[in-house]
Design a protein that fits this description.
This protein is of the alpha+beta class and about 140 residues long. The chain has five helices and five strands. The chain has two domains: about 50 residues, no CATH class; about 50 residues, no CATH class. Strand 1 and strand 2 form a beta hairpin. It is elongated and about 90 Å long. Bound molecules: iron/sulfur cluster (SF4).
Length: about 140
């Protein structure tokens, strides 16, 4: 979203980074920030600090309750659990609610082994052939 790349994130940690000399003061970040946490301040920073990225915000990652892999942001996952666990029909039981706290790989594995496996397939439909068509007899055929 940031046209100049002045605002970036860290792929390994929940961090919001900012590099001042790359900022165009376009205001897109301030306009779209859902928390209204960004305001622009006109200034010209000439120190070396303006040339490197600094951390604007940093949070703790969440550890998957199954494998311990770090993913997402701890405060966000906890907020989602608080809002959905036991309150939303999809997360009504404890097993389903626990999936919110799993990384993508563990969540898919848990869904696959769950009672209502969304990946389960029924018996494949038999392919209809010309023989089936002919076996129905002329009364059901619509070719004449
Ligand atoms: S104002 Fe915000 S969106 Fe625009 S360049 Fe600066 S950091 Fe990026």
């Amino acid at each position: 979203l940031c046209p100049s790349g002045a605002l970036g994130d860290n792929e390994d940690k929940p961090q919001l980074l900012f590099q001042e000399d790359a900022c165009l003061q376009c205001g897109i970040c301030a306009t779209i920030c859902p928390e209204k946490a960004i305001t622009l301040k006109p200034q010209l920073e000439l120190s070396d600090a303006a040339l490197s990225q600094r951390v604007l915000n940093e949070e703790e990652p969440f550890a998957c309750v199954e494998c311990g892999a770090l993913f997402g942001v701890k405060s966000t996952v906890e907020k989602v659990v608080e809002k959905l666990a036991g309150k939303h029909s999809m997360f009504a039981n404890e097993k389903a609610a626990r999936m919110i706290q799993m990384c993508d790989k563990c969540r898919i594995a848990a869904q696959y082994h769950s009672e209502n496996n969304p990946f389960a397939m029924g018996t494949p439909r038999r392919v209809r052939t010309t023989d089936d068509y002919l076996a129905e007899g002329p009364s059901k055929r619509k070719d004449h």
